[in-house]
Known about the structure:
InterPro entries: Glutathione-S-Trfase_C-like (IPR010987), Glutathione-S-Trfase_C_sf (IPR036282), Glutathione_S-Trfase (IPR040079), Glutathione_S-Trfase_N (IPR004045), GST_Zeta (IPR005955), GST_Zeta_C (IPR034330), GST_Zeta_N (IPR034333), Thioredoxin-like_sf (IPR036249). 52% of the residues lie in helices and 7% in strands. It is of the alpha+beta class.
Amino acid sequence: xxxxxxxxxxxxxxxxxxxxxxxxxxxxxxxxxxxxxxxxxxxxxxxxxxxxxxxxxxxxxxxxxxxxxxxxxxxxxxxxxxxxxxxxxxxxxxxxxxxxxxxxxxxxxxxxxxxxxxxxxxxxxxxxxxxxxxxxxxxxxxxxxxxxxxxxxxxxxxxxxxxxxxxxxxxxxxxxxxxxxxxxxxxxxxxxxxxxxxxxxxxxxxxxxxxxxxx
Length: 215
């Protein structure tokens, strides 16, 4: 049986989330770079077949393609439930962990993804950066308030869960857009703690085969 394939880009927030999940579950996979800044790369037939929307990540397992980061992570959780469970056993905490993950993946990150910023910058130079900074601060403030209710050692209670997986990438993005993340003490604490976990550290953009690929 061939290894699963992850179509990824080093600085993609969505891909980063999946890389963490794959590492935590100790799944060996084939990393396929998709340069999001190259029109030619986005039109590669193999990639378009894996994800007709031409976005990363796309995860191919046994010939079947799954897209969207949280869908991939839930798929991995269901296929490998005993390998580092990412959903808490407690029902309420399970819902809270999903809520944290969705606040990042659906509420914050889409507003400052590459497609949106390209469109805004085409309308007015510099508009994209201002837009991203505004919505990052707004969304992280909401997330901080949510974590006041749910966090323990990690985002929900004292075990790493699906709620933690998006935190490193969203704070990385915030820093790229010059957001002072010290105004979010819980998020900053969690980000530091997660960075000390080997599987999280290995998923960092700078550790990927295509690190610093910008053209």
